[in-house]
Amino acid sequence: MKILRFAAVGDNCIDRFQPPLSQSLVGGNAVNVAVQLARLGHGSHYFGAVGSDPAGQRTRHLLADNGVDVTHMQERFGVTAYTEIDVLPSGDRVFAFEDFGVCAGYKPDADEIAVLKTMDHVHVGWIDDGGVLRRTLADAGISVSQDVSVNADPVNLGTEGLTIAFGSPATTTQLRKTCCAACWNAACRSPLSPEAARGPWSAMEDKLFRSGSGRSRWSTRPVPATASLPAFSQPVLRVCHCLIALRPGATGLL
Predict the structure, then answer these.
(1) pLDDT score recorded for residue 154
(2) What is the pTM of this model?
(3) Helix, strand, coil shares of the chain as percentages rounded to 5?
(4) How many Å apart are CA 28 and CA 125, to the nearest integer?
(5) Order of strands across the sheet with 82-87?
(6) What are phi and psi of 170, to 5 degrees?
(7) What does each C-alpha distance from 132 to 129, 145, 187 come to in angstroms?
(8) C-alpha to C-alpha distance for 46 and 18, rounded to whole angstroms
(9) With contact defined as beta carbons under 8 Å apart, do 53 and 43 qualify?
(10) Residue 76 is inside which H or E element, if any?
(11) 10-residue mean pLDDT series, the chain (254 residues)
């Protein structure tokens, strides 16, 4: 297996599951991606910020214990991000409260960006920088991915510069189709016309995705969205799926 150097940038959080589950887990989109890549045997580096509190130390130690390089993890005065989660009898999660803590306002500095430009691929999690990082890396020719479902604020939402765009489908067929179409169109550097955006929709189990029509510059496929789940809670939660929009020729990392 070819060993690649990956970096995951952005959010971390402590997922606090409320009673009756009553447990806490280290999670966050960027953290989960970093851990999974390290477990696959690749070089995995995490860039983000934790608070000067026990939760921050816990996050740092857990990442290091799982083989993730935390050299560029910043410790800032304040609270490590956390989320309070209710789990329904169906297994679905309800996010009751979220505090981004010191993740809010985090940005890699100039030296860290220089390191990111040496990576084979960079995954961007939740980060409130208005898309500056993904555009900066893309301009330098770096392969970049992001889960566009994570950044809900329109200021930070976008796919410009992304090599791979992830998006989590909604709960109903119509909402899934809307989500897929939005991700499909937004992902293209040259926006598709409504006619070009049309194409066959396929339903597989609880997910819906769009297959290529031959006229689009992008293709999509459904994959397990483990990056969207708390880091070590997969056994107690139903696995969901997501949509990937992938630029032609950018298949080496999947």
Answers:
(1) 77
(2) 0.74
(3) 25, 30, 45
(4) 8
(5) 23-27, 13-17, 82-87, 93-99
(6) -80, -175
(7) 6, 14, 16
(8) 28
(9) no
(10) strand 73-76
(11) 94 94 94 94 97 97 97 97 93 91 96 98 94 94 86 76 71 51 47 33 32 35 39 31 42 37
